[in-house]
Amino acid sequence: MVISASGPSLARRHDLPRSKADPLAPPPNQPLLSPQVADSQAQGAIAKPMTGVIRATLVLTGFLLLTLPLMPLQWLLIKAGSRRQRRLPHWYHRQVCRLLGIRIHQKGEIRDKFAVLVISNHVTWLDVPVLSAVAAVSFVAKKEIASWPLAGSLARLQRTVFVDRRRRSAVGATSNEIAARLRAGDHVVLFAEGTSSDGNRVLPFKTSLFAAAKPGRPHARRAGTLPDEQAGPGVAPANSDDDAKTQVFVQTVALTYTSIHGLPLTRLSRPVVAWYGDMEMISHVWTLLKAGPIDIHVEVGAAVPLDDFADRKALACFAEEEIRGRVLRMLRGRSSDASDAPAKTTRPAKSWSQRDLMRSNVEDSRSNVEDSANWP
Q1: Predicted pLDDT at 280
Q2: How confident is the model at residue 49, as a pLDDT?
Q3: Please, which residues have CB within 8 angstroms of residue 254's CB and are 6 or more apart in sequence?
Q4: pLDDT at 36
Q5: Which pLDDT score is estimated for 229?
Q6: How far is the C-alpha of 157 from the C-alpha of 116, rounded, in Å?
Q7: Residue 33: what pLDDT?
Q8: How many angstroms separate the CA atoms of 87 and 325, rounded?
Q9: Beta-carbon contacts of residue 18 (< 8 Å; ≥ 6 apart)
Q10: Is 309 inside a domain boundary?
């Protein structure tokens, strides 16, 4: 159970770079909406301030009444090693989404019986309850979140893996913990952008964040890893659950916020929901509690064996292209259908051009310099 597993650093990052791969990025003469302007637009989105205050008060009261009794129960489940320690946060976040008025429009599913590395874009603190309502997941988050009031306790109770990016000596231990979680059949979520965006684009993925996953060299895929109806292209059917759990799969998740209080979000108004840059979290939470129901579209990609990727750069390129494509389609007002599912999932490790990998190398070098201040 967690409020936010990742968020912006204290540094200002609303002046985000324009991506050539993102045709919806505003031109240079139209800068991104600053966090201050987004906050003011959020206030303006609430037609009746008094009604909004009443709603926010009721939602906050319900949240506390739901959360506080469940915290010691989850602690006991973790101490006892019960399997329900994974399921209780999933149920809890479904109730939280109902309280907040978050309406999830989901396409695809995160595979329940298999270890999955879930790679997602990151827009706001709402991403955490949304993803936790979609499946029983844990998150990878920066170490600083562990010290946040309430949010840190909830993150620990959801078995969040905390990463200290400022200490290179700690990366190995974190990688081992993530690997152990995946071997145990957990679903681990990685926000690959390394920060949250304004919701109008997908930021370049930081390939350095994939180091903990340690994708191995491609090798012949064993039979008996995933049922036909649950597998992506080229994945063999399963013979037994035990054999399936010996292999880790990757699934991408694209998150797109489309409307608030029934009104469609545009390029200018979407940052009302997004939490990015130097936005203050408490005021942003209070504003959204007053605003009303929020619609989000969640599109889950097909399961692909982690061993199909030659290295972390190939994995990052594959995930970034899949997620960016789905987000752009949703921003343009149309959902992906079966024919839109990328055929590249058949051979992900070989579907990237040399230019893509060179670009990934450049971005990786930049991210290594920025990680200590900006992750996640």
Answers
A1: 82
A2: 67
A3: 120, 121, 297, 298, 299, 301, 322, 323, 326, 327, 330
A4: 52
A5: 42
A6: 20
A7: 53
A8: 31
A9: 25, 26, 27, 28
A10: yes
Which two structure tokens, joined as six digits, stand for 281?
């979290």
What pLDDT was estimated at residue 146? 87
Q: Is residue 201 part of a domain?
A: yes
SS3 string of the chain?
A: CCCCCCCCCCCCCCCCCCCCCCCCCCCCCCCCCCHHHHHHHHHHCCCCHHHHHHHHHHHHHHHHHHHHHHHHHHHHHHHHCCCHHHHHHHHHHHHHHHHHCEEEEEECCCCCCCEEEEEECCCCCCHHHHHHHHCCCEEEEEHHHHHCCCHHHHHHHCCCEEECCCCHHHHHHHHHHHHHHHHCCCEEEEECCCCCCCCCCCCCCCHHHHHHHCCCCCCCCCCCCCCHHHECCCCCCCCCHHHHCCCEEEEEEEEEEEEECCEECCCCCHHHCCCCCCCCHHHHHHHHHHHCCEEEEEEECCEEEHHHCCCHHHHHHHHHHHHHHHHHHHHCCCCCCHHHCCHHHHCHHHCCCHHHHHHHHHHHHHHHHHHHHHCC
Q: Is residue 12 part of a domain?
A: no
Q: pLDDT value at position 34?
A: 54
Smallest Cα–Cα separation from 296: which of 103, 111, 83, 88?
103
Q: What is the pLDDT of residue 243?
A: 45
Burial class (CB in 10 A: 0-12, 13-18, 19+), 19: middle
Total residue length of the chain: 376
Note down the domain range covering 201. 35-216+224-374
Total domains in the chain come to 1
> Residue 358's closest CA among 197, 191, 207?
207
Task: Answer yes or no: are the C-beta atoms of 226 and 114 closer than 8 Å.
Answer: yes
Gap between the Cα atoms of 60 and 5, Å rounded = 20
Q: Is residue 2 part of a domain?
A: no
How confident is the model at residue 88, as a pLDDT?
Answer: 95
Task: Identify the pLDDT of residue 17.
Answer: 47
Give the residues of the chain that fall short of pLDDT 70.
1-49, 165, 168-172, 212-246, 334-376
- Single out the residue of 375, 323, 65 nearest to residue 211, CA to CA: 375
